[in-house]
Amino acid sequence: MTAGKSDSDTGFREFNVGFDDDGIRLDRWFKRHLPDTSFTTVAMWARTGQLRVDGARATPGDRIAAGQMLRVPPPEADKAAADVDKPRRVRERVILSDEETELAQSMVIHKDFQAFVLNKPPGLATQGGTKTTQHVDGLLDGLQYDNEGRPKLVHRLDKDTSGALLVARTSRAAAFFAKAFSGRTARKVYWALVVDVPSIEDGMIELPIAKQPGTGGEKMHVDEAEGAPARTRYRVIERAGNRAAWVELQPFTGRTHQLRVHMAAIGHPIVGDGKYGGAAAFLTGGISRKMHLHARRIKVDHPDGGSIDVTAELPTHFAESLKQLGFEEKLGDDLVLDEKTAPTREQMKSRARAHAKSVRKDRKGERRGRGVVEEKATGKPAPKTGGPRTGAGSKFGAPRSGSRVEGAKPAGRGRPGGAGKPGPRSGPGTR
């Protein structure tokens, strides 16, 4: 944005829309550049025709483009004196220590005018929270360099998950990337070590996820009735007998802890993930107890054309575990990233509605079946009403969850001595 110019006769101000504000709403522009002007005032100016874009009347919800000229009325007379003394609300740049700045800059594995890609180490939170003082968001001031705006997080990784993390350098880029993630056009590839070996080599897990009651929202679980649709593709890269498998994971939705919940739900928790796998998630023989989940690659369209496609190196403990199990890192990178498009939001909603309808139909059939059995046993018609249902599949009984994993390729590829051995069952409760 160029500095505002005032008309000496009328007091109206003119502003040129900058490149960084291209495509944003007009009310958002005021929030960024004239934060002391309330939305009510902007709306009043629009209703009375005083707010103009390239000479035409404008509304707060209009989208503006770089290069356009905004005509803004002078500040209200009753606030003019206060505005002179009232400093503009500008976030002060945080001064980091030399060690913090060095840490922030050491994570950068890709840098251009619009974005950074960081290789986040395990153990560093993405954002702050209770008792969390050091996090990626707090280190972004060390990556501001000469830009006016502060870098902005676009997505997040769990504290103990390492790997590629995209950060926008401009507001325009942040809006562009946010749309890519919400529209499921951004592709993320994770590597994980899991306990035992999935019996299906290339599968799609479709299990809805919700917050687990009584955990304060800190833990998720599979919830067929109330959960949000969640979809994960996995591919077995290599196996160590029947002890463990190295898998590639691609999330097609972005639910909290999705990959961890899904792999635990099919009986193959991620190594080191005690939260979802319990004691069974830890391997013996010197394998690190840290989480073995790494965001290996991110591919997303670039705001200026082309794409960002970056690979993040493994953390030390993960690389050592691969080596100890006899896995070659090159095998994972040799897998071709298929270009299957992720389901759209409407497709996901349609699937959720179809699933809910199927569940209702199954429950209705169960109720009818119980009535027929009771009538045959007693010779009397079964009552239409009664106490709460507690059988399998009922609201009050055990969940009807059965994990749904699509795929048809058995995991037969293995290391010497392991080839041809059948993998364990992948249903819930197995290891």
Layout of SSEs?
Elements: E1 5-6, E2 13-16, H1 26-33, H2 39-47, E3 52-53, E4 56-57, E5 69-72, H3 80-85, H4 98-106, E6 108-111, E7 115-120, H5 136-139, E8 152-153, E9 162-168, H6 171-182, E10 187-195, E11 202-206, E12 209-211, E13 220-222, E14 231-240, E15 244-251, H7 258-265, H8 274-277, E16 293-301, E17 307-311, H9 316-324, H10 329-334, H11 345-378, E18 405-406
Parallel strand pairs: 9-16
Antiparallel strand pairs: 1-2, 2-5, 3-4, 3-5, 6-7, 7-9, 8-9, 10-15, 10-16, 11-14, 11-18, 12-13, 14-15, 16-17
Keywords for this entry:
431 residues, alpha+beta, eleven-stranded mixed sheet, five-stranded antiparallel sheet, 11 helices, 20% strand, disordered C terminus
Your description of this structure?
- It is a single chain.
- This protein is 25% helix and 20% strand.
- By secondary structure, it is of the alpha+beta class.
- A hairpin with a 5-residue loop joins strand 16 (293-301) and strand 17 (307-311).
